[in-house]
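S.,

Sequence below, as promised.
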Amino acid sequence: MTLEQWERNSWLKRHHVSREEITNLFSIIDRDLKDVSESDLSADWRFGIAYNAVLTLCSALLYCEGYRPTKGNLGHYYTLESLAEILPSYYPGIS
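The prediction came back faster than expected:
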C-alpha cells in the first residue's frame, strides 16, 4: 500500500514541513541519544528513550514525504510502518 492510499484511508494526512520543524525533531533525537547513553538509567528507561528517538526519526522522514499520521491510537504504528514505503524509493535494494 502506498502513502497516498494510506491518506485515502484517513490513516495519514498531508503535512507541509518546515526546516525549523525538522531541525527541532533532530534536536530531540540528539537529546534522546545522549540520554540513552547514560549508564545510571535502567534498561527499561533506555529502551523507552531509544524508541522515542527512532519514532522521532521516522516522523521526520514521513514529514519530509509530505505526510503525518492522523490523530488516533495508531499514529505510532503508521509512522514506523511508513519506513517500508519511504526507504525503497531512496534505496531500491531495500524491500
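The chain has a mean pLDDT of 92.

Coffee later?
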